[in-house]
Amino acid sequence: MTPDLPAILARLRVALPAATLTHLRNPGPSGQDSLLVAPDHLGAVCQFLHDTAELDFDLLSNVTGIDWPEPAQADAVAVPVEGTTPAACGFLEVVYHLYSTALRVGPLVLRARTVDRVNQVHIPSVVAVYRSAELQEREIFDLYGVEFIGHPDLRRILMWDEFLDHPMRKDYVAPDDYQYEPTPHDAVLEKAQQHYTV
Amino acid sequence: MAIDSKLADDLKSQGVHVTSFEGLINWGRSSSLWPLQFGLACCAIEMISATMAKYDMARFGAEVFRPSPRQADLMIVAGTVTKKMIPQVVRLYNQMAEPKYVIAMGACAISGGPFKDGYNVLKGVDRFIPVDVSIPGCPPRPEALLHGLITLREKIAQEKLIGQHRARHADPEGPGDLPVPVCGAHDIEPAFNPDVWNPPSFTRDASAS
User: Fold this and answer.
1) A174 contact B CB<8A
2) Which of A159, A162, A179 sits opposite B123 (nearest CB)?
3) Is B184 in CB contact (< 8 Å) with chain A?
4) Residue A189 at interface with chain B, using a CB cutoff of 8 Å
5) Is residue A163 part of a domain?
6) Residue A193 lies in a domain
7) CA A27 from chain center: how many Å?
8) Nearest residue of B to residue A162 by CA position?
């Protein structure tokens, strides 16, 4: 059952009046709306959703990251219901999928955004509320470079520790270890042509 | 010196088997290839299946998967080799005693397969260790692995132990331990071992494509 997002939003605004919350509408066929949470109150929002008996979001099934070099693209797929000022620069986004196993409600989609993609890439960790976030936040730290404040063991999980890049970012450039392609085309052809000896 | 095949057949009918020392050694080596027990991905499932009763790799002397590289003769690289994994694979290869052989099983071990454009996938294990037999497939069926094993047996049976074209392990000047690559800041360093593999150089008219 999809969660009643306006009702949850109203509850959250009563319980946490200081938290900045935005209802984001999904114009796609799935119509899966989401809730944009300001990073400062992400922990409190998760704690409230987890502890409130009428909501009872006890399962964090998925945490993933998105790299948005162009903020306009983010606003196109997650449209703010009330008018908000668009972000000035690109940012990284972390998406959480919450479920209530007892009430059979979900997924409740939470989004949290960093200030930019370079220096201010901090998001508070939700490991204290949802233990299942521990490995997934490490993966996002590894592949996107989001730094989770308060994570108990924030290190790389897939790539080696000495690695410096974040491979899932849009501007990641893979090392040029090109190998022979029998029928190159498109981007592979462009890459192959740099290696042609004419 | 080769033995007259008619004389050898006559002696065989009398219960006397005549062969060369080289042939005897190669027969022994090819008939008891003990693989190193490690698998990296779905190819390992087919490798396990090949050792079980239905396909029965024991028929070809390769049933004793060894848990230690010191006891193994054959490394079956069964699966995707990531860049994070290749230092360990090279280290295991170095720890195996000569004579040692490598089978690259499946598309990933040969070239990176469907994941070759991935940021963490090595485009072929032959960039770092010398591969004797490559088995195509994704994953190859157990019959293909058995065919690869028999191909390797035939290759071992043809090995020369002395002379100019002797096998690597019979050559005192042959290569010793291979350098183990290091996981660097952006990629593994070096990206390949130039003593083992070099990028194919080919000429192609850039404007014609």
Assistant:
1) yes
2) A179
3) yes
4) yes
5) yes
6) no
7) 18
8) B185
The single-letter code of the amino acid at B131 is V
Query: Scanning every residue of chain A, which has its alpha carbon at the shortest distance from the alpha carbon of B199?
Result: A179
CATH code, domain carrying A127? 3.30.460.80
| Residue A191 falls inside a structural domain | no
Closest Cα to residue A65, out of A52, A56, A74? A74
Per-residue pLDDT tens digits for B130-185:
999 999 999 999 999 999 999 999 999 999 998 888 888 888 888 889 999 999 99
Residue in B125, B103, B128 with CA at minimum distance from that of residue B116: B125
Number of domains in chain A: 1
Gap between the Cα atoms of A38 and A43, Å rounded: 10
CA A117 – CA A122 distance, rounded (Å): 10
- Give per-residue pLDDT as tens, B86-115: 999 999 999 999 899 999 999 999 998 899
Judge whether A38 lies within some domain.
yes
Interface confidence, given as ipTM, is: 0.81
Give the structural domain span for A54: 5-167
Considering chain B, what is the average pLDDT of its residues?
A: 89
Question: What DSSP string describes A126-192?
Answer: -TTT-TTHHHHHHHHHHHH--EEET-TT---SSS-TT----TTSTT----------SS--HHHHHHH
Q: For residue B183, which residues of chain A lie inside 8 Å, CB to CB? A: 160, 162-163
Say if strands B133-135 and B182-183 run parallel, antiparallel, or are unpaired.
unpaired
DSSP state letter for B201: P
